[in-house]
Each structure stands twice: as C-alpha cells, then as structure tokens.
Design a protein that fits this description.
Length: 297
Amino acid sequence: MTGQENTIHGFRSDNIWIGPQDFHQSFVDEEQEIHFIHFSKLDKNLARQVLAWRNHPEVRKWMYNKDVISEEDHFQFLQQLPRQRYRFYWLVKEGDKDLGVIDLANCRGGESEWGFYLNPKYIGGGKALRLFHHALHFFFQKIHLKKVYGYVACENTNSLLLNELFDMHMTALMPKEHKGVLHWYAKYELSKGAYAARELTLSDVRDRLIGSQSVLRRKRREIRLRQLLIQAFGRPSLPWREDMGEYSHIEACDNSRNALQLSHFSRLLQEDFGCRLGMKDLLAHHRFSDILNSLEK
C-alpha cells in the first residue's frame, strides 16, 4: 500500500497526513474571519442554541430523523462525539454572527457525506449562500477532503437550488424510509478537483442568482416536475419509461390505478404549469427532459 492509497484510518492529501483525530478540533479562517467551532468545544449556552436550531420546525422537517431531540440526548451525544471516528460537527461563526452548523458523516479515505442547517433566524435572508460557500472552502482548502456528497430531500426546493448554484453534481435519486413513510432524496457530490477548476467565489454565486434567471427558471421547473411525479406516482422519474408494460394498454383500463395516476399527474401539470398533456401525450414522452421541454413551449 502506497502513501496515496486510502486507508480506514486516514489519507494523504497535498503531502499532509489527514486522519479522523485531526478533525475533532476547532478551525479558524483568519482571512475571512470564519470560525468553525467543534461541537465538543461548545459551552452550555451554545450547545443549547444549536439544539434549538436543530429542533426548529423549519430545520427539523428536512432531517432524516424528524423527531425532536431532547436536551438529555443532545448532551449525551456531545459527550461521546470526540470518540466518533467518522462523524464531525462544527458551529460556523462569521464575525459575530452564528450562521449555522455543518457536519461530516461516514468520513473515510478523504470522501465524506456532509450536511448543514442554518440558524433559523437567517432563513430566507441569503445567509445560506454564505454558509454553503464557507463549508466547501473549509472541506477542500482547510481539511483537504477529496470529495463531499450530500442528500437533499426532493421537496426541499431551496436546498436543491443551492446545490445547483454551487455546481454540485446530482448523481442519483434514492428513497429513504422514516417511520413507514418513504421520502425521496437527490444525491449531490463535488470533488476537490472540480471545486478548484471552477474557482467559484461568493460574488460569482450571487451573480448567478441575480443574472441567470432563465437557467434558474429551468432548474425550478425541473425540481417542481420531480415533486409532481412523486405526488402522482410515488417516485421522481417516469414510471412508464422503466416499465412500459404496466402502461401499454392504458386506454383500455381507465379504471386502473395506472390510469388514475396518469390522470392525476396530467391534472397537476395543468394546475402548476398551465400545460395540457393528456394521458396519450404523456406516454409519448420517453424521457424526463421531454416533458420538461414541453413545459417550456
């Protein structure tokens, strides 16, 4: 095994040995006045503060675990966190503003799942752009990860758009079950190489948000179309594309579940987009992009 090969304990990046033990600490970006305060370093007031954020309804509804976390469980979690080998949490502080929380999970060989949640008082105020920007810079420039990936609920329009704005690449759509309810998630990932090649600044992202309205409109349509597919069929893809057999005789079985689903989907498209596509028209579309293009005519 060479020094460049991944191991269960750590990895080598830019001639720096990185391991899990190095992540259980706080970091400072002095140039931008950004503090990444490890959860094990939080005083009781800050610990209660991040718990309150996490339990806020507008934050909790997008979590895998949507339950309210008790203070007792929270402090037990903080106590054992430094012993975790693959999970890390930081409070992100910009100047005197507590922006939110970022975390890594399943961190192995320089690749990690990541997540974040914003201080609820900043929801809708544009601070999510700053938190996302600081997180990527931290992951790739400070602790030298090779790749990060995350899962975003398909209903979470703002977070999906945020990933798109930062050129995160959607690689999969997958279901996860919570208490018997199926939720669909989009998997987004970004490598250090792709991040470095783009050299996106926070100003670049803001310019995209303001200037690329046509691109954003298409992205919003794409996101909304997947949400309507989930409502109608329970999945964010075209079911007849995957199994045409179920739908090949749709006109002869108008009372079937498939016909009802198609009719419902057609009605949703008309209500949301003002687009009239009958069941026969829908079945003529063989790709997701075909329907998306029809919505733009």
